[in-house]
Amino acid sequence: MANELKESIVKEMAASYRITSNYLVAGYQGIKALEFDQMRKDLRKKNISMGIVKNSLAGIAFKGVGVHGIVGLLKGPTVIVTGGDDAVVMTKETVEWSKKMPFFILKGGFVDGAIVSPADINNLAKVPSMPVLRMQIITGIHAPLAGVAGAFQAVLRGLVTVFHSVKDQKEKSSV
Q: What is the pTM of this model?
């Protein structure tokens, strides 16, 4: 490759890596082209992109972005998985595909400012996504409040019942 072309590719890679703070590095040696295309299409539907990279150029791009820890993972046939606002969704999808295709091997990555190992990626994939976590928090807050409101309603219903009883007794005694 001509040096100008390489520089252009590195600038483009660095620009795309600056956009997101979540990258996963995986090996893909032995995956059939049709399986790889299917995986790429499925990930793209979830706003996750996957690109085959030339390791030396990707290393230069990552150094340019300031993510030096990824460079050690760039060995052998490599893909970089990026995208999505939620790192948990990206890791869940990537881990699912690594289970379906044994030749798709997660090497590590960079998630929210920290270098992660394959074990970290698997653990992160077990965490509920942000919408689910938000719902769990709201439900956790709502449940005690609903209980307190129910208790107040029960007291008020009991008080109304007592007042009706008193009223009925006064009506019977005045007749």
A: 0.70
